[in-house]
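In the current project phase, the collection of sequences with tokenised folds has grown. A representative record is quoted in full directly below:
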Amino acid sequence: MKHIKLVILLLLGAVVVSCQKDFLEPVPSSGITSANYYTTADEVETAVINMYDGIQGVNSTDPDDNHGVQNEFYLTEMRSDNTRTKSQEGEAAQFESYNVAATNGIVSNYYASFYNVIFRANVVLANLGVVEDPKAAAKFEAEAKFVRAYAYFNLVRLFGDIPLIDRVITPSDTDVQFTRVATSSIYELIESDLTTAIAGLDNTYKTRASKAAAQALLAKVYLTEGNYLPAQNLCEDIINTGSFGLMDNFNDVFYSELNKEIIFAIGYLASPSSDSEYFSAEWMNGVGRSSGVNYVTSDAVGALDASGGDRTQYSYRIDPFQTSQNQVAKYFPNGDSGGADGKTFANDPTTAGNDWIVLRYADVLLMHVEAIMAGANETSNGAALTSFQKVRNRAGLTTPVTSVTKDDLLLERRVELAFENHRLFDLIRFGKAESVLSAYSANNGYGYTSSDLLLPIPQNEINISKGLMKQNPGY
């Protein structure tokens, strides 16, 4: 973990803080060691905010910077049948062709970035003793455990067995850093952390952890494990609060930020550039760290055209310069349309302020259907039909449904949540990844095999572990 070791050393010497739009923005400090900095609740809160800064990532062109969630679409959407590169060139094209190398820098960056997020969460947990107010301490613990669970849930689904680091470690703790533990142990920690988070949080924030965010994330964890009744109960807890709802206009979900549909989002600001994001510019081609990535596949276009309803016009658009190609339209930088030429934006598109939505209410409604279905191929349960119909009604698809099959639900999730990094995980959770991705790969001349459902452990981790870490099969 070369990157992680470096970050640990840096963070032990200084405290880095973030600017988020709907919570406290503390003043940065420097030249303060971890041994003497955390003495008050306010100081611990800077470490809390620093966790979200880690997820947000650094907007830069330096491949060694931790880019947080900004690289996630490569590892998720571009390994599904939803998106690809424009020209099938470069390191990015490894994802769509199912030919990811263990030396892939994007994979390495994501792995290091999210272990750095875990480190930041562990820093908060290690310093709760200085918080005199028990309520404040419980809230900080809940936030840190939500963030740690979120990071681990992403990592375990992408890499399988991984190191479990539940405390602050130093670079000398190689036995912890490089010992891969069973996924079941990772899920035990995730469940425990989210249970604590649910007990200690309310629904004050949308770009910080909340009770509903912890409930929704735990529901998805349970669905992944096939634990359906607890998942159903968690979804119904969120639904019954009355605190969330579907936006009337689908487009407003993405450009009316912090709206009633948002449960948890990663906050970005167009200024300063350190709090902005670049990935929406990359999707518009020719701007950002890369270009022509996350382009929409013909498979996804076909699904949206046939089943998207009102969502289709807001989900993709034809590339203005190459009309045989299609671009993601949910995240125009800063909400700009891109102008007539597709590249002219009112502001610098590489410093966009679009929040990245992690959990939203439509996802919860569809998870509710999935939980009630409980692994069966079909359901006509009234509560499931109600949740399913609400999502379709918003899309203008108002014909009443009398039953929902697993394929219906998977399709509805695809067109509702297209390009929001859910598709690959949905295919795996529904048990459809092997059949869908094999057919998709064969149709496009790609090289998918079952081992491609997991990413390789970054080769630099294997190298510096000195034989402690073993690679995933197929790499």
Notes: The beta strands are 83-84, 162-163, 180-181, 262-266, 295-296, 316-318, 326-328, 356-360, 378-379, 404-405. Confidence is low (pLDDT under 50) at residues 1-32.
